[in-house]
Amino acid sequence: MRNLRIQDSLRRWLPAAAGIAAVAGAAALAVDRSRSTERRIAEVVTLADRLNDAASIVCASTAPPDESRKDLALQDDLRRRIREACMPGLVQAELMSTARKAALDVKEIQPVAPAMGLRGAENQATNPAYRVQVIGSYRQIADYMELCKRQRLPARVIGFRISRMNGEDGRPLPALTADITLEAYLPPADAVELAKG
């Protein structure tokens, strides 16, 4: 009889106990899901922060369209200069134009035997050289030699000699005659090939 009472009590309380267990299980599952969701949300927030940082870096390192066009124009100009540096006639014309900017009278510009280049003796590269004879003041001649370094097709002075001319009466003239040897820049062969392409 006592067993029957226990069984009867169990039968009455079993659905309630099962309900309580189900509620406890559901609560545990909800808490676990909540923590899992929180972790996933934190991961998404971290990922979003990283993506924002990456987007900021990309925006900061990407040139605006105007600057991109400017860069392309500079690249085109550099390619033209590399091609033109290999054309002696254009280099001579540049030397003549620079002499005019320095207000010098040009007597002569002519190519001379090439000088050893800036690239050294290991590859035996030579740069074209030009002999320029000009007449002007000391200041004009100095300005000319400085301008040659900054002209569109640059050339550097590798030798110069200045002398004073005498007039018909034997007196020294105020103008000086300068005999300047300039070395033009000759781009490496691979740069010339790249400029052609």
Model description:
The protein has 197 residues and is α+β, with helices and mostly antiparallel strands. It contains five helices and four strands; from the N terminus they run αααββαββα. Strand 3 (155-166) and strand 4 (172-184) form a beta hairpin. It is rod-shaped.
List keywords for this structure.
single chain, alpha+beta, four-stranded antiparallel β-sheet, 5 helices, 4 strands, 59% helix, 24% strand, rod-shaped
Number of helices: 5
Fraction of residues in helices? 55-70%
Strand order of the biggest β-sheet: 1-2-4-3
Rough outline: rod-shaped
How much of the residues is beta strand, in percent? Answer: 15-25%
- Total DSSP E strands: 4
Taking pLDDT < 50 over at least 5 consecutive residues as the criterion, the unreliable ranges are: 119-124
Through-space gap between termini:
106 Å
- Report mean pLDDT, rounded to a whole number: 81
List the secondary-structure elements in sequence, H or E: HHHEEHEEH
Radius of gyration: 42 Å
Sketch the major β-sheet. 4 strands, antiparallel
Q: Briefly note the structural class of the backbone.
A: alpha+beta
